[in-house]
Amino acid sequence: MKNIFLIVVLSITFASCSEYQKVLAGDSTAKKYAMADSLYTAGKYLKSVKLMEQIIPAYRGKPQGQKLMFLYANAYYNLGDYTLSGYQFERFTISYPKSDSVVVAAFRGAKSYYELSPVYSLDQADTNKALEKLQGFINNYPDADQRVEANEMVSDLRSKLDYKAFEIAEQYLRISDYKAAISAYDNFIANHPGSEYRKDAFYGRLKASYELAINSFPALVEERLMTTSEYYDSFNKYYSETELNEEAVKLKEDIDKRLSVIQNPS
To answer: What's the mean per-residue pLDDT of the chain?
Structure first.
């Protein structure tokens, strides 16, 4: 009985595949459209897009073209091919700006670029592009239901860029390139005013400046300690109530002791 059932299933599958191949290789755009729609509905997106890509040019400018282009983009989205889904959704919004599906298409197009954003340690060109697309969506459709999710994605991407910039400074500090670390922290503080890592950047700059000062030639120590003292004042102005304050105070106390010895030789 089991063998009979298996034979029936295999026969149906083979017949289905044969029909698909027949339609795929055929000339009937109507049959390809109908089968592509059916396969899409069944969640067989890869087979569906192979049919769609053959007939999209034939339906451009026709009533069915709008639905076809949306399904084509969405099939790639569901397949996780975000490069193609982002591109195809963008084409859809340009081709059908008054469509009832344009908001969904614009959002999923922007979200496709979000999905392409890599980990912070890699090149962030796709992250910047995703930010551009998401911000464009928010600006163009401020009342869209998806605006909350879009804003959350923008926040996530900005945090990633913040962390990358912060980590560059941290890396310089770890390898004892203190001048480069100070410069990187300065740039971070100037360019990322609302970052969650801002406090750590103020402290990191203080620490890097301190290490640079105490490891300098004697003739440079006093000036660099005084600069470090100014960095402490900046940290203390904004973050005296944070968990990093204790370590910052220890640095300040050592700075003052060293300056006292230099400025008041016995």
So the answer is: 92
In order of 68, 79, 174, 246, 265, the CA distances from 91 in angstroms are 12, 18, 46, 56, 74
Query: Rounded CA gap, 234 and 216, in Å?
Result: 22
47, amino acid identity: K
* Domain 63-162 annotated CATH 3.10.28.10: no
Report CA dihedral (158, 164, 167, 168) to the nearest 10 degrees. -130
Q: How far is CA 216 from CA 96, 204, 212, 227, in A?
A: 65, 18, 6, 13
pLDDT of residue 11: 44
Position 63 scores a pLDDT of: 86
CA 138 to chain CA centroid, Å, is: 16
Kindly tell me if the per-residue pLDDT of 220 is higher than 70: yes
Q: Binning pLDDT at 50, 70 and 90, where does residue 18 land? A: confident
Eight-class DSSP state of 98: T
The HSE-up count of residue 229 (CA atoms within 13 Å, CB side) is 14
Q: Are 51 and 39 within 8 A, CB to CB?
A: yes
Q: Confirm if 225 and 258 have CB atoms less than 8 A apart.
A: yes
At residue 220, what is the residue type? Answer: L
Closest CA to 236 of 200, 208, 202: 202
4, 14, 112, 201, 244 from 251: Cα distances, Å: 82, 76, 47, 16, 11
What tokens appear for 155 in the block? 């926040």
Over pLDDT 90: what percentage of the chain?
Answer: 86
